[in-house]
Amino acid sequence: MSLSIRASDLVKDYADVRALDGLDLEVEAGEFFGLLGPNGAGKTTFINILVGLAERTAGEAEVFGYDVDDDYRQARDAIGLAPQEYNVDRFFPIHEVLEHKAGYHGIPPGEASRRAQEALDTVGLAEKADTRFDWLSGGMKRRFMLARALVSDPDLLILDEPTAGVDVQLRRDLWTIINRMNDEGTTILLTTHYIEEAERLCDRVAIMDEGRKVEVASPGELMDRGTDRITIDLREPPTTAPDLSLSGVHDVQLSGSQVVVTAARGSALVPDLVRELDERGYEVAELDIERASLEEVFVDVTRKESEVSA
Ligand SMILES: Nc1ncnc2c1ncn2[C@@H]1O[C@H](COP(=O)(O)OP(=O)(O)OP(=O)(O)O)[C@@H](O)[C@H]1O
Ligand SMILES: [Mg+2]
Asked: How far apart are CA 284 and CA 120, in angstroms?
């Protein structure tokens, strides 16, 4: 297994604030990895350490085997970052900003110019090449940040809330671009507060809270820990909730004429559920499963965690 990111017992103190408190994290090369966590969890701090914008207090951090301090140049050259806060030269035409960025990564001028054009094409900003950053619309600024992250053709693309405040269409456009990058082999580290975004895109997600990793798993595995809701229409509407003795069932309720069953791993339970209802003389007319969302599991995990440490 080749790793794109490895952090071990990573600590970052800002004066008396411990932003990272012994973070352990491994991201495999080629993964689409999500970093979730409430405000202040330490996500941006971690990213800043990877790209050399913040210095760790203790612990280890490597990018493709390169220590982020000792082998700063190699580690930094492997990363394209779209940061949470804009830090762009606002007065230059955006294609020049991209050429500078490529130059910073050691790409010669002719090639840099070609890459800049290509990155603007990729994000649909080709016709704005001569415009300065602060004259772009909000959504165009987001596109541009992605272009700037792409221009050095990085092996690791780090996106810190790339779709914050963008409209639905642009969000989907950005997803398509990022997915394509990932299909072509680029490792993606994505932070987002749109948990659904992580659910759709990520191979695995880590949930962080208070500077530590609380969970790491695929969205599907995490969702399996939540509670699914199965709504059943019976041929003959019952007058009381059926008595079910299946393991995994949390609750059975009557809601109007419908039976509502809450259970872990609802879809795996359905065959047994239908059989048991049948044995008890109920005929199922229609059945609908509403799966636990990653968002519910996220809220659950981060709430429990802060209660435990409070
Ligand atoms: N430059 C800084 N100086 C002092 N404290 C900082 C600095 N940067 C971050 N912090 C503190 O470190 C903690 C973690 O912040 P960080 O920005 O990493 O969180 P985050 O998970 O990215 O949150 P968000 O979801 O709001 O972006 C917070 O308590 C924050 O106030
Ligand atoms: Mg942040």
From this structure: 55
Tokens 């009557």 found at: 254
Closest atom of ligand 1 to 41 CA is 21
The tens digit of pLDDT for each residue in 20-30 reads 999 999 999 99
- Using DSSP's 3-state secondary structure scheme, residue 286 falls into strand
**Within this chain, do residues 204 and 262 fall inside the same structural domain, yes or no?**
no
- Tell whether 261 and 194 lie within a shared domain: no
CATH number, domain of 201, equals 3.40.50.300
Centre of ligand 2 to C-alpha 83, Å, is: 9
Say if residues 192 and 199 touch (Cβ distance below 8 Å).
Answer: no
37 lines ligand 1 (CB under 6 A): yes
DSSP state of 245: -
Structural domain boundaries enclosing 15: 3-223
- Residue where the block lists tokens 């069953």: 261
Q: pLDDT digits over 52-104, tens only?
A: 999 999 999 999 999 999 999 999 999 999 999 998 988 899 999 999 999 99
Residues 127 and 240 in one domain: no
pTM for the complete prediction?
Answer: 0.90
